[in-house]
C-alpha cells in the first residue's frame, strides 16, 4: 500500500462490525449482499448542463438523459449557478423558478446542492452601476436574503462570496461590487454578505471561495476569522488550465490552508485533455482560441492527473468536497477541453478512471459477504451510506467516522 | 510645469507670507537672506556605515568623515540596525551602547532615527530555537520593551515587525519567529509586538513593514486594522534589484496602499548602477555573484531612475518618508552596486542628482530676497525649517502645512 493509499484508508474508511438481525435474531453464517449507496465525501460537479434536463426543456432530451446518467454515475453533489448578472439580469426578475426546479431534481435524488455565488464582482448585475454604494450594499444584502430563503431546504450550501482577494482592486471593468468592496474594505464586505446569508438561513453551510492560493488568501482568511466572522468551509479553486499542479504543490496548499481548522472544499477543479494554456497568461479569461481540441495524448494525461489529484485530496483529512468544473466539453468555460466527457457525449478515459475510483476502488459495488456465527458482518468500507440485503430483506446503515465502527442493522 | 511637478508643488510647498520684525518694528524694504535648514519630508538613508564613525572606531577616520559629510549633504533621517541575531547574538548581551552612541550622533544633528526591525524571522536570534513558542513570545516582547525603553527619546520610530506576509510560511530555514507566527497566526503576532512597543514607548511612531506589494499585504493590513491594532505608518520596501518599477507601477502601489488613510514610508529603496538581477530570481538572497560592478551606463540610468522615483513619491501626499538602502557601494547587501557613492568614496551621478533635487530644486539654498514696504517676506518654499538673516541678526520659522502660510518672525 502506498503512503497516500494508507492515508486515504486512515481518513476515509471505517473497519465496521455490523450486528445484523432479522426479526430480532442474529443472521448467523449467511451470505448477504453489501453495497455502498452514497459516499460521505462530496464528489461534486457543476450541474449547469442539467438545468434544462431537470426543467424538461432540453433541446435533445435523449442526450440530456444520457448526460444525467453519466453525471450520477460519478457525482453526488451539485453546484448550480447564481451569477447575479444572469440570475437577475433585469432587476426584480430573478430566475428562481427554473433554478429551483433544477435544484430539486438533484436534491430529490439525494445529491446536496450548492449555490455559486451570492456575491462576486464578475458577471454581476450591470444595473448596480446605476446605484450608489449604499444602495449597492442594500441590493446585495436583499439578494442574498431572497435566494437564501427561496432555496432553503433545497440549497443549504452557498459560495457566499467569491474572489475577495482581488475584488476591490479588480480593474478589468467597472462594476458595482468592486466599487462597494473598495469603499468599505474586504473584511466589512465579507461580514456584510455572511451576516445576511447566516441570518436568512441559519442551517446553511457557508463558504468563502477564492482562486488566489497565495499568502494573500491566508491573510484574508486570518483577518476574517480574527474579525469573528464564522466561515463553515474554505473554498479553494483549482482551475489547472496551465497544467496539473502535482502532488507537492497541492499538498503544500492543503498544508497551508488546513491550519485554520476549517473543512476545505476544492470548489472548482479543471484538468485539460488538450493543449495546456501558456504560463504567461495571468487572467485565464484573456486566453481566447478558435478551437481547443481534446487529443488522445491529452486524454491519457488527463486521466492520470485526475487520479493523482483526487488521491491527493482524499489523503488529506481536511478535504470534504471536490467539485469538478464541468463534466462535458460542450459549453465549457473558455472552450477548454476540460470535461470528462467529449462534446459528442462519449466518456473520456478520465471519466472511466474517476468512475472506477469512486465506485470500485473507493466504493463497494454489490458484494457478497458472509456473516459469522454471531451474525456479525465485518468489512472495511469508505464512509457513507450502505445497504445490506439478504433473501429480499434489506437494512441500511451509515459509516460516519473513520476508525472502528460498531453498528447494528435490522433487516426488514 | 509637468503634472508631477504641479502635484509636488501642491502637496509639498507653502506660499508663505512672513511678517519680519526687528526689535518690534517691521523690517521694511530690506534685503534678507533666506535658507531652508531642514526638510519636513524625511529623506532617509540607512546609517549602518556611520556607526563606527559615530563611535570613533572607524578603520579610516578620514574616509568615514567624508562619508558622514556626503550622508548629511542629502539625508535628514537615519535607519539603524536592530537585527536580533546580531544585536543580541549572545542572549543577555545586547549591542545597546554602541548603537545608542550612533543613534545619538544622528539625533544630535537633528536627524530623526528609526530602528529596524524589532521583530523579523530573518537574521533573528539563533538561540530562540532552544525555546518553546511561549518562551519565544516572551523573549520577543521583552526584547521589544528593552530596546524601546533603552532608546526612547533618541529613537522614537520603529519598524516594529518586518515581512509578516511571508513570516509564518517562510521555509528557507527553521527559526523561532516563523515557528511562533505559524503557531499563533499573523494578526496575533502583529498585536503581540505592537502592544509591547506601544506600551514601552507611547511616543513612538510604529511601522508595519513589508516587501510584498501584492494584495496579500493589503489583506494583512485590513485584518490588522479591523482587529483594532493601531499602525502609525505603513512601510513599503522597494528594493529594485530587478529593475526600476517605473512611475505607473509605483503610482498604482501608492494608490492601493494609501486607501487606509495612513502615512506611507518607502522604507527600503535600492536602484542599481550596474547589471539588473534576472527576473526569474524570486528571493533576492538567492542571487550570488562574484563581482557586480557599477558601470558608466548603469550610473547614468540610476541617476535618471532616482530622480523619477523621488519625483513620484513626493507627488503623492501620503508619502512622508523615503529611505534609500545604502549610500555606499561598499558593504552593500548582496554586493549590488546600489549605492549613490562608489566603493572608492566618489559620488555617482545619482548622488549629485539627488543632492540637486533635495537642496536646490526642492530646497532653498541661501537666497537673497527683499521684504516689501510692510516688512513682509513672500516666497514659495518646501515644507520644513527656515532661517532668515539680516545684518547678522537671524530668525527661524517653520512651514508645516501646504497651501497659504502666514507667519511672524522676529530677528534676534
TrEMBL record, chains A, B:
One Pfam family matching this protein: Glyco_hydro_10
Sequence ranges assigned to domain GH10 in this UniProt record: 55-357
Protein name according to UniProt: Beta-xylanase
SMART domains: Glyco_10 (SM00633)
Spans traversing the lipid bilayer: none
Gene Ontology BP term (one): xylan catabolic process
Enzyme class, UniProt record, top EC level: hydrolase
Coiled coil start-end: none
Reaction(s) this enzyme catalyzes, per UniProt: Endohydrolysis of (1->4)-beta-D-xylosidic linkages in xylans
Record family assignment: Belongs to the glycosyl hydrolase 10 (cellulase F) family.
GO molecular function: endo-1,4-beta-xylanase activity
Catalytic activity, EC: 3.2.1.8
SUPFAM superfamilies reported for this sequence: (Trans)glycosidases (SSF51445)
UniProt keyword terms in alphabetical order: Carbohydrate metabolism, Glycosidase, Hydrolase, Polysaccharide degradation, Signal, Xylan degradation
